[in-house]
């Protein structure tokens, strides 16, 4: 192996993609995506691949290696040829699908490029139909590729490019024999690119035997994220991202925020929807003139704008002190972009928050980021309706408090209210409530509670039968969950619970966490260190005329006695049996929400879609 060299993860005077010899259709696609400067592995790998050299690339997942081999292949495809010209082998179907999606993005300005994912678990019919029509690029797992070769349904006689992606992972999963068979049975004239995070002896021998005078490129990753940035992620379906973003904006205490989208059109769509929902938001991307970009950034700095929606390129070099949050509406596919994005907050020792939206199929990207940055991302839950409502009530209180400070204006309106009360014989509190309705307008102050799951009849199972009947989640840090004996049957709302407990217990609005209202009772998060005297005061509290009987929640629902009344909580009998909640099992996802599974690969399975009854030497 010759011409081995090392390169760092970031270098000064880095070239642009245009400097690497790529054609205009590919460069245009990269501009659409928002890529401007190639990563270290891309800058070192693309030129020799375009020049026809075999390459061995040693780089961690998340360094941008997919583009390193995909861009030269797309750039040199012969679209008139119908037989497969490029074959990419990947260890799992999840990675194979990600690579296919990347190829499709990079080929967006080339007409008639056909890319086919081939993996076990997918019906042969779909793959056979596509192969008969003709494909230019095949991305697949080794076992299913071998199946097609054995059946004679995949013709690789015209193959020009072969890529081994994550070669060390393929060997760990037992694909060595299949990979060597494919290498040996494809044309000797093909160009080979092998990418691996490590260089075990088997891969070294394979590269020496099947690659011709390869150039070895090693990328030393120095990818780190600031310890002052809290990193979280939310698993959410693609269609629900906008609603998830809105709820996060409701409950997060942010100053300035950047929301990152993958494309220009996505950034414009997000900004438009945020403005329609009452937020001050603007988009910046590659189509925005420099003067407009500067005006928008200055508005963010001055506080006239709260949310900036941007692509990677548009946000380069952006340093605004009041950016407290970064949201990855589309999680980036390479670690360098992730580090760059979240680095817009938590600068110069300040703290910051980074939240990434992850679809079920993208969970592997989270693990790749954690491995590359050596920092764990914490999974968060979508803020509940009750959490949103508590936040809205707090802000409503703050607006009232601020208005009460304007003495002159309050005096003027006090006379107007008094005049209305005298002439219409209406209580002042009703007049105040009516004025709040007028001020609020058409938008409701509080969200409606989430709908109750449909309960099956006795002995009947539904699709949701595996869901806990009364799902309880752990309270947030520093809080404990308390149970009160009033619920939806008593027509209580979160605002009534907050008001009653705050008044009787001397609590503040920020003492309340999530509130979950159930048919017969409610669960309220309160500070875990609540003094005994406060609990004693709360024990006499009534809501809707009913004593709330506050107590720490144990996760059990006491049965009522024979007379229909619940026995006391001070050691009295509670009945012979207690009704327990269902096992806390995750809700089964519907097929259309379920992404590719890769968990079996961690147990040494060859491919994540093989049945254990089938032969172990091949994925199906």
Automatic annotation (TrEMBL):
Which CDD domains does UniProt cross-reference here?
DEADc, RRM_EcCsdA_like, SF2_C_DEAD
Q: Which SMART domains match?
A: DEXDc, HELICc
Kindly indicate whether the keyword Zinc belongs to this entry. no
Q: What class of enzyme is it?
A: hydrolase
Give the UniProt subcellular location, in the record's own words: Cytoplasm
Gene3D superfamilies in the cross-refs: 3.30.70.330, P-loop containing nucleotide triphosphate hydrolases
Which residues does the UniProt record annotate as the domain Helicase ATP-binding?
Answer: 46-217
What domain of life is recorded for the organism? Bacteria
Record-linked InterPro entries: CsdA_RRM, DbpA/CsdA_RNA-bd_dom, DEAD/DEAH_box_helicase_dom, DEAD/DEAH_RhlB, DEAD_box_RNA_helicases, DeaD_dimer, DEAD_helicase_DeaD, Helicase_ATP-bd
Q: What is its main location?
A: cytoplasm
Q: Which GO terms describe its molecular function?
A: helicase activity
Q: Does the keyword Nucleotide-binding apply?
A: yes
> Which intervals of the chain are annotated as region Disordered?
444-476, 546-620
User: Residues in domain DEAD-box RNA helicase Q?
Assistant: 15-43
What Enzyme Commission number(s) appear in the record? 3.6.4.13
Indicate, by first and last residue, each region the UniProt record lists as having compositional bias (Basic and acidic residues).
452-474, 548-612
Catalytic activity reads: ATP + H2O = ADP + phosphate + H(+)
Give the Helicase C-terminal domain ranges.
244-388
UniProt keyword terms in alphabetical order: ATP-binding, Cytoplasm, Helicase, Hydrolase, Nucleotide-binding, RNA-binding, Stress response
Function, as annotated:
DEAD-box RNA helicase involved in various cellular processes at low temperature, including ribosome biogenesis, mRNA degradation and translation initiation.
Similarity annotation: Belongs to the DEAD box helicase family. DeaD/CsdA subfamily.
Query: What is the official name of this protein in its record?
Result: ATP-dependent RNA helicase DeaD
Which gene holds the coding sequence for this protein? deaD
């Amino acid at each position: 192996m010759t011409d081995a060299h090392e390169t760092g993860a970031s270098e000064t005077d880095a070239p642009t993609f245009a400097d690497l010899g790529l054609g205009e259709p590919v460069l245009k696609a990269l501009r659409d995506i928002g890529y401007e400067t190639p990563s270290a592995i891309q800058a070192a790998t693309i030129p020799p691949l375009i020049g026809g050299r075999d390459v061995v690339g040693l780089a961690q997942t998340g360094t941008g290696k997919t583009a390193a081999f995909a861009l030269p292949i797309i750039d040199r495809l012969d679209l008139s040829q119908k037989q497969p010209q490029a074959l990419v082998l990947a260890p799992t179907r999840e990675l194979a699908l990600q690579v296919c999606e990347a190829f499709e993005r990079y080929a967006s300005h080339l007409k008639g490029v056909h890319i086919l994912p081939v993996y076990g678990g997918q019906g042969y019919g779909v793959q056979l139909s596509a192969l008969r029509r003709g494909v230019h690029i095949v991305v697949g797992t080794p076992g299913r590729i071998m199946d097609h070769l054995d059946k004679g349904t995949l013709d690789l006689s015209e193959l020009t490019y072969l890529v081994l992606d994550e070669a060390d992972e393929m060997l760990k999963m037992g694909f060595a024999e299949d990979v060597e068979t494919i290498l040996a049975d494809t044309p000797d004239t093909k160009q080979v690119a092998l990418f691996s995070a490590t260089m075990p002896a088997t891969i070294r021998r394979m590269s020496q035997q099947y690659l011709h005078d390869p150039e070895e490129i090693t990328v030393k990753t120095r990818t780190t994220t600031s310890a002052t940035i809290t990193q979280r992620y939310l698993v959410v379906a693609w269609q629900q991202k906008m609603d998830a973003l809105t709820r996060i904006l409701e409950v997060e205490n942010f100053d300035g925020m950047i929301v990152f989208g993958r494309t220009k059109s996505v950034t414009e769509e997000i900004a438009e929807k945020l403005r329609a929902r009452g937020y001050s938001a603007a988009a910046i991307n590659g189509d925005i003139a420099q003067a407009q970009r500067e005006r928008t950034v200055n508005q963010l700095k001055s506080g006239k704008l709260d949310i900036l929606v941007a692509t990677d390129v548009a946000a380069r070099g952006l340093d605004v002190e009041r950016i407290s949050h970064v949201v990855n509406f589309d999680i980036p596919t390479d670690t360098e972009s992730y580090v760059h994005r979240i680095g817009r907050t938590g600068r110069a020792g300040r703290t910051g928050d980074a939240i990434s939206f992850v679809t079920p199929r993208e969970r592997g990207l989270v693990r790749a980021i954690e491995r590359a940055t050596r920092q764990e991302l914490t999974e968060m839950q979508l803020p509940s309706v009750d959490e949103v409502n508590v936040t809205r009530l707090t802000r409503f209180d703050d607006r009232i408090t601020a208005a009460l400070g304007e003495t002159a204006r309050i005096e003027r309106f006090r006379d107007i209210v008094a005049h209305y009360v005298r002439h219409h014989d209406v209580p002042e509190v009703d007049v105040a409530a009516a004025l709040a309705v007028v001020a609020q307008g058409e938008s409701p102050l509080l969200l409606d509670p989430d709908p109750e799951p449909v309960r099956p009849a006795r002995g009947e199972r539904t699709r949701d039968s595996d869901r806990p009947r009364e799902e309880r989640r752990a309270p947030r840090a520093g809080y404990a969950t308390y149970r009160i004996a009033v619920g939806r049957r008593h027509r209580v709302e979160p605002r009534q619970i907050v008001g009653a407990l705050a008044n009787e217990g001397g609590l503040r609005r920020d003492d309340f966490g999530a509130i979950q209202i159930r048919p017969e009772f409610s669960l309220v998060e309160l500070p875990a260190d609540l003094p005994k005297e406060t609990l004693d005061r709360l024990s006499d509290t009534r809501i809707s005329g009913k004593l709330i009987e506050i107590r720490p929640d144990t996760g059990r629902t006491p049965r009522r006695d024979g007379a229909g009344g619940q026995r006391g909580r001070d050691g009295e009998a509670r009945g012979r049996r207690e009704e327990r909640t269902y096992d806390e099992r995750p809700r089964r996802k519907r097929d259309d929400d379920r992404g590719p599974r890769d968990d079996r690969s961690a147990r040494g399975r060859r491919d994540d879609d093989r049945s254990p009854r089938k032969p172990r030497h091949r994925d199906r």
